[in-house]
Amino acid sequence: MHLTFNTLMLLGTLQGFIMCGLLFFSTKNKYANRLLGILILLITLAVLNMYLEGVSRLPDVIRFILNFLPLIIVMPFGPLIFFYVRSITDPDFRLSRQDRRHFWPVVLDVVPQAVAAIYVGGIIVGLFARNSQPWVKFIDTYNVYSDIPRWASISTYLFLSYRHLEGFNLAKDRLKWMKQFTGVFMAFQVLWLIYLIPYVIPQLTDKLLDAVDWYPIYIPMVMIVYFLGIKGLLLPERETKASPAPLEERLIATVVPLLKKAMEEDRLFLNPALNLTLLSEHIAIPPKSISAVLNQHLNKSFNEFVNSYRIEAFKKKVSEPGFEQLTIMGLALECGFNSLPTFQRAFKNMVGMSPKEYIKMNDQIRI
Fold first, then answer.
1. Mean per-residue pLDDT for 130-144?
2. For the chain, N or C: smaller number of CB within 10 Å?
3. What is the pLDDT of residues 16-73, one digit of tens each?
């Protein structure tokens, strides 16, 4: 059984790396597939770690090096699941600076390697005695109980993903995929919880590992790698919708003034983290209704609508005296953009020239 399990881990690792490469270099759903590729890569690294632990003839130097390599990185799973869901519901979605804060808890995953490095470094400089027992005990105990925040993190982001999907009317193929995607991880969370409860009880930890080892967790992880990779690659580029039903005049009359008020009076566009969900909560209109009005009545995507206000704010700023005290990036950030490349791309698409060219032209007109 052990040989079969280790062979399965090896095959899962190889398949995982192949899937990562295919997703990263896929020409469709590029951003979404890269997020999915990173998620599969992290799962694959955990499977690789399990495989290496099962190799009995692994050279000692390799085993020593593995003590300092964080192959089990689980805290980003939850954010990656959530942001992948968002990228499927909104093809224009990109991670903002505030979104990246969701990945900060990854430090919890590297504590064992940091402790091992501190111990070895302390021995080298003569700070610690050669007694690894208390250090190993701390690492083993930490590894057991760190699974609790890991499980809680994934569960929280799965809940957020489910709530996010409630506000969208996706095409049949994407809706089916999102249900499968979140359903697979929900099933895994239930399985992990059943395993986790006895695992964190000191009297039962060793008994559990002796009885079933890590089979109930890592065999499903290998299956998830296969499933996510294949399904993600097969997902069509965009939603294939039938001709949308005409919008009701009453809906247009309600939503358009609220959108203008949110931008022109409340100036929500200055928030770089603004998304469809936040706008929906602010004006108390469902996201799918906002999208319908933007797409069918105003002929704009959500990002195009918001960025038009940000670009107008930029134009106004560069027409005022003293704007030279700020860089273009500084002006863009003040107007609600979260990065210079995003601003430059949006500005050129909307205005037909770069920000520098616009400022130069504006200076010539004033002269």
1. 92
2. C
3. 999 999 999 888 888 999 999 999 999 999 999 999 988 878 888 988 898 899 999 9
Q: Which domains does the chain have, with CATH numbers?
A: 2-234 (1.20.1070), 249-366 (1.10.10.60)
Would you say the C-alpha torsion 139, 140, 143, 148 has a positive or negative sign?
negative
**The residue to which tokens 């290496």 are assigned:** 52
Is pLDDT of 238 > 60?
Answer: no
Average pLDDT value for residue range 234-255: 71
Interhelix angle 2-24/30-53, nearest 10 degrees: 160
Closest CA to 41 of 25, 26, 65, 19: 19
Give the integer Cα–Cα distance in Å for 30 and 216: 33
Q: What is the DSSP string of 266-303?
A: S-GGG-TT--HHHHHHHHT--HHHHHHIIIIIS---HH
Q: Name which of 274, 296, 295 is nearest 283 in CA terms.
A: 274
Q: From its phi and psi, is residue 75 left (phi > 0), alpha (psi between -120 and 50) or beta?
A: alpha
- Tokens standing for residue 67: 């003590």
Q: Is the Cβ–Cβ distance between 12 and 47 less than 8 Å?
A: yes
| Contact (Cβ atoms closer than 8 angstroms) between residue 252 and residue 220 | no
Rounded to whole angstroms, the Cα distance separating 183 from 168 reads 17
